[in-house]
Write a structure and sequence with these properties.
about 350 residues; alpha/beta; Rossmann fold; two-stranded antiparallel ribbon; 9 helices; globular
Length: about 350
Amino acid sequence: MRILFLLSALAYAQDQSALPPVPAALGIPKPGPVTEGPYAPQPILPGGIIIPLYPAGSPVLKAERVREAEQYNMSQAVPGRISSIVNIHNPSIELHLVERGINTGAAVILAAGGGHNTLNVGGESADFVPFFYNYGVNTVILRNRLRRDGYNPQTDAVRDALQAIRLVRAYAKEWNIDPKKIGIMGFSAGAELSAPAAVLFDDVNARPDFVGIIYPGPSPFARNRTAPPIPRNAPPAFIASAGAGDRMHAIWAIEYYSALLAAGLPNNELHLYGNGRHPGDPLPDGSRMPGGLTDRGGTPFGTWQYRFIDWFRDLGFLGKPSVETKAAKDIEAFLKEPAR
């Protein structure tokens, strides 16, 4: 009987005309409807908890545009995968929690890149939710406003990043997040939000406890800018970029790291890789250099995320919730030293 069944299945597979049509993909995410009120952002991934950054009627928002729906750019190869989002006029955060049994209490806010013209939430946000889940780290996807939609990255988008930190900290107890383990990781243009968030926060609730600055755009310490004073309690930074193959972003990474190093701040780490290109750069085969978590052809640059985890663990962020981190202890000790 088993042999007859296998033969029948083989014959069925070989007879292409007998195959039923492939069903359409299910559960495809889509933008919310336009209503009389502010646009309600929809989750990028199942189970996401969405909170707008600002209350309805906030003067920070453009009243004439806040009702407009976001626009999704869907992957052409993977059904249901959102590659990027534009037309963001009611910025928001999307929370993804981890199980209580593995929860470290840490939360990382993800600021995707896209040249301020689009928000690459696929490779530089959504993909990191399961990655960080395995380490007990809660994730928050930031949907910030974009230059292409009429906003200033250095003011409006940075304000969105700082507001995201405040909001996560305000809900920390309800979400079982340690309020002293909240940070932000930015990619390319998104790093133009995480870097200033680390040195331009205007109150303790907006201060990130750590920052990730991944193949960054220009920081407040870029050569053509007036460098701000560095707070003595600026959080530790993990910085990673390709080197000569992504020269300008490497320079911006070095400028940020050098400013912190000159100030004597502890626990900052810089990785510049010898072989690598910026995400989106054209490759010889006609494809584009991938970003985010991709292994980049098996090169060392494709393992930067594990170097981040090494750094993150070393500073105590993967310990139990409510246990003071090494990062916090080192900042406290640094504050007791004479100013340089």
